[in-house]
Queue: 2 jobs
Job 1
Amino acid sequence: MQNIKLKPEQRQRCEVWTRVMGYHRPTNSFNPGKKAEHQERLPFQERLCRSESAD
């Protein structure tokens, strides 16, 4: 893997979007309350389930 170094002026800002109430919108358009709620969210982590053995 190649380590690429960029100067600050060469970087591009990344826009973060999230799904809210069934539609997608950028997080930078959130009001202060929604920004605070978004920071408290935990990412979903799927767990593997053991299937019951069939008789």
Note: The chain has a mean pLDDT of 85.
Job 2
Amino acid sequence: MKADPESESDAGEHFLVADVGGTNARFALAPAGAAGGGEAVIESLEVYRCDAFESFNAAMRSYREALGSAFPKSACIAIAGPVDGCSVEMTNRGWRVGEDELRREFGFETVQLVNDAEAIAAGIKTIGEADLLQLKAGVAADGPALVITAGTGLGVGALLPAADAWQALPTEAGHLALVPRSDLQRSVIDRLRAEHGRVSAEFLLSGPGIGRLYRALATIEGSDARLDDSEAITAAAVSGTDALSARSIELFRSLLGNFAGELALAFGARGGVYLAGGIFRRLAPLLCDDVEFAASFCDKGPMQRFVKAIPVWLATVPKLGLRGARLTLERRMAERNTG
């Protein structure tokens, strides 16, 4: 199937952008230069299941075929893993992606690899207040902001105020250990640690993590774990049709609030905390006005006053990684041209 561009622009006037996680790889075109505008318009989007391909390059070949037109000469690939120079080993998938290999096979003149959380953080600055739900009251002040995104893994990107813009930075804070705040949290984490070893934030605050919480809670309570995937558990919790799902998501929200507050404290995130990604969007009805989320976020002993002032928002729009990839590429190309 050919991708259908939303404009008549030639592909040579576009960037190729991709957002690659452990489950899905998203490819699109984004207008370069002034044509892109502040919103980083996304065109010709195709989404592929990663399981269908043996490598990232194989997935990109499929996109090139679907596009059915000239491939862009510049690309930015946002990918779930730490960027090491010019290559990435994906954290939750056995793919290695290298800039040199991409240039050779696809003829790119410019190709940039970027951590996906960094790209999503950059993308946050392309949206407005209408695209945000406030989950916790507060007033943003001068200082860093944080973006937390959940999917197959858990990503954390930082936004640092610069002279004329925000500078997005990658982190690997999603792999920090989780600290229990209650006896129930301690019981769940201890049980999972006994089975799997170290329990990081990503291990529980992600799509697969919802299933792990659900099954661990069922074992502790002696309940029947009748659901087998995170989307079904989330849907049942939102609809109120399964009590165990509801308790599992309540535990997820409490752990998330505590972890987000710890990160806000560590980064001095006076500029606010943003949650982004499909998992958080699906949980929006349960996260809005969630007293336990806010209480967990603020439970920081003598630093409670500091974190209480920090607002938390939920981004309601998709494609932030693609938007951010476009902005990241354009900024880095400009830096090279003026350097």
Note: DSSP finds 13 helices and 14 strands in the chain.
